[in-house]
Amino acid sequence: MIIGVQGILVRTRRLRRGLALVLTGVVMTGGGAGAARAADGDPVAAFGVRAPDWRPCAENGTECGALSVPLDWAKPAGAKITVALTRLEAADPAHRIGSLLFNPGGPGDPAAPYLKEVADEMFPARLRERFDLVGVDARGVGDSRPAIACEKPTLDLNVTQFPGSRAEYDRLAAYNRDVGEGCRRATGPLIDHVDTISAARDFEAVRIALGAGRISFLGLSYGSLLGATYARLYPGRLRAAVLDGAVDHTVGSRRLALDEARAEDAVFGRFAGWCQSTQDCALRGRDIAAEYRALLDRARRAPIPAASTPSGATAPQIAYTGYALLALPRNWSTLATGLARAIAPAPDASLFAVPVASEAAYRAITCHDFPSDVRDYPDLAARQREIRRAAPVTQGFVEGWDVQSGCLGWPVRAADPWGPTPVRGAAPVLVVSGRNDPATPYSWGVGLAAQIHGSKLLSWDGVGHTAWFNDPATQAEEVAYLLGAPPPPS
To answer: How confident is the model over 346-399, as pLDDT tens digits?
Structure first.
């Protein structure tokens, strides 16, 4: 769960290409046309799932298809939507294990680009050899149709997310309400059914369409909640699952923001320490924390000039862009250079002068699954004071705050509100959590693992959001587990 960070891997490859602009058992699956049905007693069982018609759609051999599913799984005979699929078949079919479904996070990050554009970077060779890799663009996301859309940006830089008065609080709630109503008009009835439970049922329909008795699953960041939800609903259909960058659906929006803010401030401290020890940091030898705080204070009073745009860069733009870059240490040199230029006597904050509004799909899905529990202005004001104390340097500009303030006043009823994700009867699930993850703090991995009976918690001590994108040694353990090795001990 992180704004834009998973997509950095895809966007980096696109830039290089000149385009715009992270157990046991062997299951053999078959395709084949014709209808198939899920187990009795589940809403999917009332819907005839047909295998998709696959067609080549990328130079690397990836195929694309679409699956028709109900708009509302409670009414399987009602209106239909389509879920977009991508598949890269196992390179070593003689030793193929089965299908590995994955979700890259977001929520709202489409899976297709990871297979079509960066499969060799995203998936180690051993996975590409042994699994059919299957990407599912969650309902309303990417190439799935209809797509989630909104009439206006989810965040207006003229409407503060940190209101200092009741009037500003009312304006924020009214803006969010207007955004949500515009999303309903632009999206249609789908807006009521883009919660994670509905998406998990879509994944079960994909399993049936693939002809697979069981599937393996890789869920990153928000994808960990989707994977845990699937395991809760369909424990017997899961061969193995890696949930990396774990999200705990019990924490509530106050702790969501506070935990992330503490974690980001701690990672900023590590960034500052790195700056003092490497020649690659443009801020080496300076008090980076003090200068960053001062930069945000200046940006609150007036945008920092930027050569790329006459409007300059505001405090939210600087802080949220910094948050995303902190999450992948490979980007720390870029962050340091951008900050040095923004702090210079003739400042140029071009690195940060970018849109920071969440994607329409991100906002619509998060408000279903992580609704704001803010009661009133005094409550939000108290949360602001609390988060600023917890994160004196980065000052609380984290996704959790964007969610709790952005879902304030949201007019669409939450279909999957805060609550536990208990899993019983599934094969051992591997929950992976980093002790220095700024986006999904370590305590969330501990909390999610406690809800999944028989799970194993794999901890790693490096820095960054998800071990998959940041720690090759831990990723190797994840891959070994998916290939059939016993999960490593907690």
So the answer is: 999 999 999 888 899 999 999 999 999 999 999 999 999 999 999 999 999 999
- CA 399, CA 414: separation in Å to the nearest integer? 18
Query: Which residue intervals of 62-134 are DSSP H helices?
Result: 112-116, 119-122, 125-130
CB atoms near residue 476 (< 10 Å): 13
Burial class (CB in 10 A: 0-12, 13-18, 19+), 24: exposed
Structure tokens at 337: 């250079």
> Can you tell me the distance from the alpha carbon of 300 to that of 313, in angstroms, rounded to the nearest whole number?
10
Helical spans, DSSP H, in 125-245: 125-130, 166-187, 196-210, 222-233
* Contact present, 252 and 300 (Cβ < 8 Å): no
**Token pair 């053999």 is at which residue?**
28
Phi, psi (degrees; rounded to nearest 5) at 469? -95, -10
- List, in sequence order, the alpha helices (H) in 21-165: 112-116, 119-122, 125-130
Angle between helices 166-187 and 377-390 (to 10 degrees): 100
Residue 170 φ then ψ, to 5°: -65, -35
CA 453 – CA 229 distance, rounded (Å): 13
Which strand ranges, in their side-by-side order, compose the sheet holding 456-463?
55-56, 63-70, 80-88, 131-137, 98-103, 215-220, 238-244, 429-436, 456-463
Q: Are 102 and 219 in contact (CB under 8 A)?
A: yes
Amino acid type, 240: A
Query: Is the whole-model pTM more than 0.85?
Result: yes
Q: Report which DSSP code applies to 401.
A: H
Amino acid at position 276, single letter: Q
Other Cβ atoms less than 10 A from the Cβ of 301: the count is 7
Say how far apart CA 482 and CA 207 lie, in whole Å. Answer: 17
Given the structure tokens 């598949």, which residue do they identify?
Answer: 87
Q: What are φ and ψ of residue 191, in 5° steps? A: -55, -25
Residue 160, both tokens:
């503060």
Contacts of 278 (CB under 8 A, 6+ apart): 284
Tens digit of each residue's pLDDT (9 = 90 or more) over 58-106: 999 999 999 999 999 999 999 999 999 999 999 999 999 999 999 999 9
Buried b or exposed e, range 428-456, using 16+ CB within 10 angstroms: bbbbbbbebbbbbbbbbbbbbbebbeebb
CB contact at 8 A, 314 and 361? no
CB 280 within 8 A of CB 451: no
